[in-house]
Design brief:
The protein has helices spanning 18-33, 54-64, 88-100, 111-123, 147-155, 203-213, 229-238, 265-271, 292-295, 299-307, 322-328, 343-356, 359-372, 380-390, 399-404, 425-440, 446-459, 464-476, 484-491, 493-506, and strands at residues 5-8, 37-40, 104-107, 161-164, 171-176, 180-185, 193-195, 218-222, 247-251, 254-255, 280-281, 288-289, 339-340. The protein has 510 residues and is mainly α. It binds one RNA strand of 75 nucleotides through strand 6, strand 13, helix 12 and helix 18.
RNA sequence: GCCGCGUUGGUCAAGGGGUUAAGACGCCUCCCUUUCACGGAGGAAUCACGGGUUCGAAUCCCGUACGUGGUACCA
C-alpha cells in the first residue's frame, strides 16, 4: 500500500486565516497519524491577485502552529516545484490531451463577450448563463467552429481558453470521508475553464494534475469546493487516472460568531478578535491586523482550539497537545456542519494551556512581553517562580504584564481609596513595628513573614485580616494578586520595606 | 433564480430506534480564599417545524422552514 500523502494548497492572495489554518491542521494530523507526508503546494495560479509576502506569511504561520515539520514540508519524495506558477508547462500538456480525447475544447469567447451575454440573459429574466451543454454550440469554440476555422484562429494568435466538456445527465459518485456517499449529476455544472488565456491553469485543472503527479492519496479541503467536486472527479476519469484518485474529505466551514456567513477577515475587526494566526498587513488598506500570537495566544492553545472546532475525539477530553491530537485524530469524526467561532472559548483554551504549561515553557514568551515594556530579567530562577505564582490568573500571555509587573517595578498607582476609610493610628503603628521586625528578620521565607506579621498583630490586638489588605496594596498597588506573603517573599526584603515605607508616607498619621 | 451541503441549550458538542438527552464555554448562586484569580458544589437553558414508518423517533423516510456554500479566464 502506498504511503499516505496529503496536500495543503493555500493561495497567496490574502494571508491565511482561521479556516485555512484548520484545513492545514487536519491535513497535517492525518498525515502524521498515518506516518505519511504533508505536502505544501502554493496555489498561485492567479498572478493578478498574488500578494507579495503572502507565501512567506503562510509558511511562518504554519511554523508557528508547529504544523510544518522542522526540516520543511517537502523533504521526502521529490515532486518539486511546489509553486503552481512554476509548473505551468505540465498543465498545458494535460489540457491539450483532454482536447485530443474529446473531453475539452478551445473557446475563443472573450470575457467581455460572455459578460454581455450574461447581462442580456439576466435582463430578459432568464436564469444565469452557464457555459455548458445548453449553450456551447452557440458560442465561439472548437465545437461550434470547423476544424479549419479553429486552426486559423489559433495560428493567428487569438487568445483562447480550454474548457472541459461536461455532458448533461451524467452521474458522479463521490464517497466523501466526512459526508459519506454522495451522488450528484452534471446538470448543475458548466464547462469550467481549465486553462486560462494566459496559459495558467485554473484551480480545477491544477488540483487534479498536481494531485496525480504528486501522488496525493488524500485530499481534504473546505466545503466550499463540494459543488465543483464533480468537475474534479470527471477530470480524473477523463485523464484516465481514476484508480489513482485521492480520497476526498470536505471540511465544514468556520462561520461568523453572530451568524450569517463564512468567517472573513473583516469580522475580526468588527467583532474584536483576531482571525489570523500571526499579525497581517492587509495588502489593500495597508492596515495591520493583530494575530492570535500578538494577542497573547500560545500556539499549543491556538491549535487545540482550532482542532476542537469541527472535530472531537468522542470523549470528554478537550485539552490536547499536538501529539495527542495526532494520536486521536480521525477524519471520520469531523463534523459535517459548520461551526461558529467563539472567541470566549478560544480564550478559555489559552487559559488552560497557560495553567498547564511549565514556567520554563512560558518564560521566553513572557520575557518578550516584559521586554516590550522595557523590563529586563536578570534572575531567571526568580522569574520562573514569579511565573509559577501568577500564571493561573492569566488568560492571555499579555496578562502577565498586569499580573506580574509589580515584581519588577514599584506600582505606579496605589489604591489608597481602599485603605483610607479604615485607616487609623493603630494600623500606622503596626506597620512601623512591622518594618522594624522585618528589617531584623533572618529568614525571608513567606511562612516566616506570615508568622511574624500575625504575631505583631496579636500583640497589638489587631485583626490580621484588616491589616492584610493594606499590606497587599502597599506591595502590589491594588486588590489583586497571589498571597501577600508570597509576593513579599519574592519581592525581597529591601523592596518590601521600601514599598511599605513609601505607602506609609502617603497616609495620614491619625 | 438554480444546484449542493447542513440543522441537538446563546456557542462548541456526545448520542445514530427505548437515555433522567453527556460534557465544555459563557451566564447565575453558593463554598473556599481575610484581595483577585485558581479550585469545588449547584442552577437556568436544547433535539427547527409538519407529516409519515414503528409498540416506541433527537435518532429512519418525505416535505417545509431556516442557515450556509457554489453558480468567475478567484481560489
Amino acid at each position: 500500500m502506498s504511503k499516505v500523502r496529503v496536500r495543503f494548497a493555500p493561495s497567496p492572495t490574502g494571508g491565511l486565516h482561521l479556516g485555512g489554518v484548520r484545513t492545514a491542521l487536519f491535513n497535517y494530523l492525518f498525515a502524521r497519524k498515518h506516518d505519511g507526508n504533508f505536502v505544501l503546494r502554493i496555489e498561485d495560479t492567479d498572478q493578478s491577485r498574488y500578494v507579495e509576502g503572502a507565501e512567506k506569511y503562510i509558511i511562518e504561520s504554519l511554523a508557528w502552529c508547529q504544523i510544518l515539520p522542522d526540516e520543511g514540508p517537502h523533504k521526502e519524495g521529490d515532486y518539486a516545484p511546489y509553486r503552481q506558477s512554476e509548473r505551468k508547462s505540465f498543465y498545458k500538456e494535460y489540457a491539450e490531451e483532454l482536447v485530443q480525447k474529446g473531453h475539452a475544447y478551445y473557446a475563443f469567447d472573450t470575457p467581455e463577450e460572455i459578460e454581455t451575454l450574461r447581462h442580456r440573459l439576466k435582463s430578459e429574466g432568464k436564469s444565469n448563463l452557464q457555459y455548458g451543454h445548453q449553450v456551447r454550440h452557440q458560442m465561439k469554440n472548437s465545437l461550434s467552429l470547423s476544424k479549419e476555422e479553429t486552426d486559423t484562429l489559433i495560428n493567428s494568435g487569438t487568445p483562447y481558453v480550454i474548457r472541459i466538456k461536461i455532458d448533461s445527465d451524467e452521474s458522479v459518485y463521490l464517497n466523501d470521508l466526512i459526508h459519506g456517499n454522495m451522488h450528484m449529476d452534471t446538470n448543475g455544472v458548466d464547462d469550467k475553464v481549465l486553462l486560462k488565456a494566459d496559459g495558467m491553469p485554473t484551480y480545477h485543472l491544477a488540483v487534479v494534475v498536481d494531485d496525480y503527479l504528486m501522488k496525493i492519496t488524500h485530499a481534504f479541503r473546505g466545503e466550499e469546493w463540494l459543488p465543483s467536486a464533480p468537475v474534479h472527479i470527471l477530470l480524473w476519469k477523463y485523464l484516465g487516472w481514476e484508480s489513482n484518485m485521492p480520497k476526498w474529505a470536505h471540511l465544514p466551514l468556520i462561520l461568523k460568531p453572530d451568524g450569517n456567513g463564512k468567517l472573513s477577515k473583516r469580522d475580526g475587526e468588527r467583532l474584536g478578535f483576531p482571525v489570523f494566526p500571526l499579525g497581517w498587513t492587509d495588502p489593500v488598506s495597508k492596515e495591520y491586523i493583530k494575530g492570535f500570537k500578538e494577542l497573547g495566544f500560545l500556539p499549543e492553545a491556538f491549535v487545540n482550539m482550532l482542532a476542537m472546532l469541527g472535530w472531537n475525539a468522542g470523549t470528554e477530553q478537550e485539552i490536547f497537545s499536538m501529539e495527542e491530537l495526532i494520536g486521536n485524530f480521525s477524519i471520520e469524526r469531523v463534523h459535517s456542519s459548520g461551526a461558529k467561532f467563539d472567541f470566549e472559548k478560544a480564550k478559555w483554551f489559552n487559559h488552560e494551556w497557560i495553567k498547564k504549561s511549565d514556567p520554563e515553557r512560558l518564560a521566553p514568551e513572557v520575557k518578550k512581553i516584559l521586554q516590550d515594556k522595557k523590563v529586563m530579567i536578570e534572575d531567571d530562577d526568580k522569574f520562573k517562580n514569579i511565573i509559577a505564582l501568577v500564571k493561573d490568573r492569566c488568560t492571555l500571555l499579555t496578562d502577565f504584564w498586569e499580573q506580574a509587573s509589580y515584581f519588577f517595578l514599584a506600582p505606579e498607582k496605589i489604591d489608597l481609596e481602599s485603605i483610607l476609610p479604615k485607616w487609623n493610628n493603630d494600623k500606622n503603628l503596626f506597620f512601623i513595628e512591622l518594618i522594624r521586625s522585618y528589617s531584623l528578620a533572618n529568614s525571608w521565607a513567606h511562612a516566616e513573614l506570615e508568622h511574624s506579621f500575625k504575631e505583631i498583630a496579636a500583640v497589638n490586638r489587631l485583626k490580621p485580616g484588616e491589616l492584610m489588605l493594606p499590606f497587599r496594596i502597599m506591595l502590589v498597588g491594588g486588590k489583586f494578586g497571589p498571597g501577600v506573603f508570597e509576593v513579599a517573599s519574592l519581592l525581597g526584603k529591601e523592596e518590601t520595606l521600601k514599598r511599605i515605607r513609601h505607602t506609609l508616607s502617603l497616609l495620614p498619621e491619625k
